[in-house]
Amino acid sequence: VTPVFPSITAKVAETMFEDGSLLFFFPLFIIYIFIVIGNLTVFFAVKMDSRLHNPMYNFISIFSFLEIWYTTATIPKMLSNLVSKQRTISMIGCLLQMYFFHSLGNSEGILLTTMAIDRYVAICNPLRYPTIMTPRLCAQLSAGSCVFGFLVLLPEIAWISTLPFCGPNQIHQIFCDFGPVLHLACTDTSVILIEDVIHAVAIIFSVLIIALSYIRIITVILRIRSVEGRRKAFSNCAAHLCVFLMFYGSVSLMYLRFSATFPPVLDTAIALMFSVLAPFFNPIIYSLRNKDMKIAIKKLVCSQKMFTVSAG
Question: Please, what are the domains in the chain?
Answer without folding.
Answer: 7-311 (1.20.1070.10)
